[in-house]
Amino acid sequence: MRLITSSLLIGTLFASQAHATHASYYADKFNGRKTATGETFTNQGMTCASNQYPLGTYVQVTNAKNGKSIVCKVNDRIGKAGRIDLTKKGFSQLAPLSQGLVDVDVKKVEKDKTIHLAQNDN
């Protein structure tokens, strides 16, 4: 019984830790298209594409260099393994769009515990 409890505890601890990856942002041509969840994509929302987290998960994305952070909802999948694709609105809160790609730390957060959720969760 102790072994099972310890394994569950360790799994929970690792699940809540951040992992390092790269963030990019969606091109405007995706505006109006359906995401993997069936929602209509907009670059003005606070959503993202990831293969690391289940659809509907909220994640905190933090710029590894400047410490700026956002919370967004995973509502799509991305073809590049390990990368996270943000909306332009989300990316611009972490770094200038001209940067194109930024090193970030990503971790799962509970929706009801987030402070800075965007009004538009599309």
Model description:
- There is one protein chain.
- The protein is of the alpha/beta class and 122 residues long.
- Helices cover 17% and strands 29% of the residues.
- The protein is built from two helices and six strands.
- It has helices at residues 2-15, 88-94, and strands at residues 19-25, 47-49, 58-63, 69-76, 84-86, 102-109.
- A six-stranded mixed barrel has the order 1-5-2-4-3-6.
- Strand 3 (58-63) and strand 4 form a beta hairpin.
- The termini are far apart.
Question: How do you describe this structure in short?
Answer:
By secondary structure, this protein is an alpha/beta fold. 17% of the residues lie in helices and 29% in strands. The protein is globular, with a radius of gyration of 15 Å.
Structural class: alpha/beta
Radius of gyration: 15 Å
The residue ranges in which pLDDT falls below 50 over 5 or more consecutive positions are 1-15, 115-122
Q: What does the average pLDDT come to? A: 83
Largest pleated sheet: 6 strands, mixed, barrel
Order of helices and strands: HEEEEEHE
Which terms would index this structure?
6 strands; six-stranded mixed barrel; disordered C terminus; 122 residues; disordered N terminus; globular; 2 helices; 17% helix; 29% strand; alpha/beta
Note the topology.
Elements: H1 2-15, E1 19-25, E2 47-49, E3 58-63, E4 69-76, E5 84-86, H2 88-94, E6 102-109
Parallel strand pairs: 1-5, 2-4
Antiparallel strand pairs: 1-6, 2-5, 3-4, 3-6
